[in-house]
Design a protein that fits this description.
Layout (H helix, E strand, L loop, with lengths): L2 H14 L12 H8 L3 H13 L3 E4 L3 E4 L4 H4 L3 H6 L5 H23 L2 H16 L4 H17 L4 H24 L3 H17 L3 H22 L3
Antiparallel strand pairs: 1-2
Length: about 230
């Protein structure tokens, strides 16, 4: 472990222990460096790294604070990292999605409110209207899934799935461009998910989501070499 890594670990321990809770202001740089037995240069490097990781934030003219540490903030960089993956790693992403998204959809079936259900239906209806517009269809496809995941009541799971889906959105666009039947199938699969949510049927929702994700994964595997 480098000296900078050790400095990062010491600050993270203060946060984990609750000594620096979410929203807390860090002591002045010199004081914190002295308290932790670090040089000011190492302290600056550690703070920079934790700012990049969204653990800390610098408020100009005020000081450095611990962020909210909410999942959507800490995991924000996941989507960017996913975009850099290459080759068969895209298939690994669909496997991860297949493992988690049905569970999240099942949770949503038991927790979704009428208001959230209306939001999901809005995007389903928009997908149907955009049947012949691949880009718009996929925009509402992604929004449909975000709405479902948000209603599951688990922000960590929703953020993880939203992050790994960023790369697969482009894959669905590609699929729509080369497979003219994909739009009809996609809408039918989303309708099945919506129907299960309306019925508040967790098992049916999981099954509908599994079929949908598995269809995409199967298509990618068949066309991967091409």
């Amino acid at each position: 472990m480098s000296l900078t890594d050790k400095a990062i670990a010491r600050i993270r321990e203060l946060i984990r222990s609750g000594e620096l809770p979410p929203g807390a202001k860090l002591p002045p740089e010199q004081q914190l460096a002295s308290d932790l037995g670090l040089s000011r240069n190492l302290m600056r490097e550690a703070v920079k790294a934790l700012v990049m990781a969204r653990v800390l934030e610098i408020r100009r003219g005020d000081g450095t604070y611990v962020t909210s540490l909410e999942p959507e903030l800490l995991l924000e960089g996941l989507g960017w990292a996913v975009e850099l993956l290459r080759g068969d790693k895209l298939l690994e992403l669909t496997e991860v999605r297949r493992l988690f998204e049905p569970i999240a959809t099942g949770l949503a079936a038991g927790r979704i409110s009428e208001e959230d259900l209306a939001g999901v239906k809005h995007h389903l209806d928009a997908m149907r209207r955009a049947r012949d517009d691949v880009e718009l269809l996929n925009k509402h496809d992604a929004a449909f899934h975000r709405a479902v995941l948000a209603s599951a009541g688990n922000s960590t799971l929703a953020t993880l799935l939203d992050g790994i889906s960023s790369r697969t959105v482009r894959a669905r666009v590609w699929r729509g461009l080369v497979d003219e039947r994909a739009g009809d199938r996609t809408i039918a699969e989303h309708q099945a998910i919506y129907n299960a949510l309306v019925a508040r049927d967790r098992a049916l929702a999981e099954a509908a989501a599994l079929i949908h994700v598995s269809t995409t994964e199967q298509w990618l595997r068949e066309h991967f070499d091409q």
